């Protein structure tokens, strides 16, 4: 029982520690690799700027954006992650955001991040090919 | 006469130098340096950082003692650092030593300012391009996560995307204040 209370207290503390705005969460959890302007660098990390929202144009693309390792494994609660995804799409690629875009929900993020991509490069390639063929 | 004075002065200076220094001492120090160079890269030296161009620094003038000294490991911005302090290596707490290149890919955390109590977002950028600095090793790990959470781990060489992966030292740049949702 005492252990459970301790666990609850710890969980509460951890949650409180991450109650940051989407912009701050981007800086803390994404910017280290994707950079402040979302351009990423040197073939190490994909750019977000001017490209991330194009995944929403194809089936599976919406799920893909949650299942990529940086998102699925982010040390963030589902609701914070959903808000961060929406913020990132609007901040870095508003031009590609579909007019009928529906913001991510915590439940959706919860479900999708539980199915991480096992082999990301081919999955990404397939989606990019599909996006290209729709142009 | 003048030449003679120079000659005796040089002779005296050389003898003084020979008396007060030790060739073996030099060899010993050289050996230490070489051994250190060989063994230190094996240590789990941690690195840090984030892309950054501007300083949004808080007022540092009210900081007392070590918390306000960028050459001291207890400097407030170093709460999650793991590496050699650039400020001890020819650079500053926010700029890399000459001859090194600042990695744009970095690890980012927060440190609480001891005076204003705010949480500032700190980017720990590695300085890359020369051999490791070796001075002012500083290993504080607030918010550090295991290496399998690579984006939040400071035990990683963050010299990525740079022309060389050789780690030299680390800076701590303030990106701004962490804002709550």
Protein described:
Chain A has a single domain, classed as Cytochrome c-like domain (Cytochrome Bc1 Complex, Chain D, domain 2), CATH 1.10.760. Chain A contains eight helices and no strands. Chain A has helices at residues 2-17, 22-29, 31-34, 61-67, 69-72, 78-93, 106-113, 120-133. In chain A, helix 6 (78-93) packs across helix 7 (106-113). The termini of chain A are far apart. In chain B, strand 3 (107-112) and strand 4 (119-124) form a beta hairpin. Chain B is elongated, with a radius of gyration of 21 Å. Chain B has two helices and eight strands, in the order ααββββββββ. Chain B has helices at 2-20, 23-39, and strands at residues 82-84, 101-102, 107-112, 119-124, 126-128, 137-139, 167-170, 173-177. Chain B folds into two domains: 2-37, no CATH class; 45-177, Electron Transport Ethylamine Dehydrogenase. The chains are: A mainly alpha (135), B alpha+beta (181). Chains A and B meet through helix 2 and helix 3 of A and strand 3 of B.
């Amino acid at each position: 029982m005492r252990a459970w209370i301790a666990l609850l207290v710890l969980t509460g503390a951890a949650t409180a520690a991450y109650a940051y705005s989407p912009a701050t969460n981007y800086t803390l959890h994404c910017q280290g690799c994707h950079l402040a302007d979302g351009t990423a660098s040197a073939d190490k990390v994909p750019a977000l700027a001017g490209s991330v929202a194009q995944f929403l144009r194809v089936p599976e693309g919406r799920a893909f954006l949650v299942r990529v390792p940086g998102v699925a494994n982010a040390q963030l609660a589902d609701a914070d992650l959903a808000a961060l995804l929406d913020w990132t799409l609007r901040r870095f690629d508003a031009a590609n955001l579909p007019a009928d875009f529906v913001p991510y929900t915590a439940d959706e993020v919860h479900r999708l991040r539980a199915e991480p991509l096992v082999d990301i490069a081919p999955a990404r390639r397939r989606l990019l090919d599909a996006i290209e063929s729709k142009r | 006469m003048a030449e003679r004075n120079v000659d005796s002065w040089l002779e005296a200076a050389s003898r003084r130098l020979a008396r007060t220094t030790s060739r073996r001492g030099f060899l010993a120090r050289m050996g230490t340096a070489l051994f250190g160079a060989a063994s230190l890269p094996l240590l789990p030296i941690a690195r840090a950082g984030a892309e950054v161009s501007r300083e949004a620094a808080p007022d540092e003038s009210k900081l007392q003692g070590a918390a306000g000294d960028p050459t001291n490991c207890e400097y407030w911005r170093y709460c999650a650092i793991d590496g050699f302090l650039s400020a001890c290596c020819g650079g500053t707490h926010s700029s890399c030593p000459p001859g090194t290149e600042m990695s744009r890919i970095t690890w980012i955390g927060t440190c609480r300012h001891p005076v204003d109590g705010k949480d500032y977002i700190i980017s720990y950028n590695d300085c890359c391009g020369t051999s490791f600095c070796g001075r002012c090793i500083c290993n504080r790990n607030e918010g550090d996560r295991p290496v399998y959470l690579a984006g939040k781990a400071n035990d990683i060489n963050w010299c990525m995307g740079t022309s060389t992966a050789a780690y030299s030292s680390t800076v701590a740049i303030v990106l701004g204040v962490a804002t709550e949702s």
